[in-house]
Structures
1.
Amino acid sequence: MSRQQEQKVLPLRQRPHVFLQLVRNLAGDTRNVKWSAHARERFEERDISNRMALDVIRKGEISGDIVAGRMAGEWRAKLTYPIPGRREVGVAIILIRETRTLVKTVEWGD
């Protein structure tokens, strides 16, 4: 492949509606949602429950870009959703090979 041809190759991108559909479908069964140790620590520290985080995953919208993860088949994004009576919650999530999810962290939106 020539240098000119190499420059025309575009990186793969995950389409937002596809990402959301996959993540929401997986989150319908909590066995498909894994929590990192960091996320579990932040639940307590930030007074965010795993129920709130699941609501964000199931109902939230993408905030920012969807980026490729460190490993092949991984996509990373931040989802946000306003929790009634509280504030907006953000969940950093990794979609792994379209078969499971890993929550990296949870945070308040402000």
2.
Amino acid sequence: MLLSEVVTNAVRHANLDEHDSIRVHVRLRPGLVRVDVADPGGGFDPERDRIEGPETGWGLRLLDRLSVRWGVERGTHTTVWFEVATEAREGTDAV
């Protein structure tokens, strides 16, 4: 679900043309899955764009609630990444 939300945001907001692509990279670590979604768009500021209200989608809210950590990195591409626990960690309900 989180991957779908992040890719959907890239498609909607990165101003892609027919030659652009979105790259997805998944890494498995003990107890953790890290997903990176990169697109050639200009990116966004997660603090500024963390608008709560009926006019906004669920992508950033879901990342906040369901991931262990997430962030945005800007360079030649914008990469939104998140980490999800694959097993319960002490003090969390993540599974």
